[in-house]
Write a structure and sequence with these properties.
96 residues; two-stranded antiparallel sheet; alpha+beta; 4 helices
Length: 96
């Protein structure tokens, strides 16, 4: 299997991550999206380095696409909340 290199591949994988982790997202409270992305990257054979940088790219893409927004930082952990777009996406997927 080839490794993820391009922006398009990272964007596709960010959406795969979003779909796989739907049940773990809390719509009402901030959570550690970057930590979840890091765990996903570490357990996937699609990433070359399996580090915080690749997880950060996944997080940044989901923020850029409008599914999440930065909430605050506590003890070097960045917490995110779901936007209305993210909540709507989750509701549609959960109701299928």
């Amino acid at each position: 299997m080839s490794k993820i290199w391009t922006d398009e591949q990272f964007e596709e994988e960010a959406l795969v991550f979003l779909n796989k982790k739907l049940d773990y997202f809390n719509e009402e409270h901030p959570f550690d999206l970057s930590g979840m992305a890091y765990e996903y990257v570490r357990n996937s054979d699609k990433f070359k380095y399996k580090d915080h940088v690749e997880a950060g790219v996944i997080t940044s893409i989901l923020v850029k696409l409008g599914y999440f927004e930065f909430h605050n930082r506590i003890n070097d952990i960045r917490y995110y909340t779901m936007t209305e777009k993210g909540k709507e996406f989750v509701r549609k997927k959960r109701n299928k």
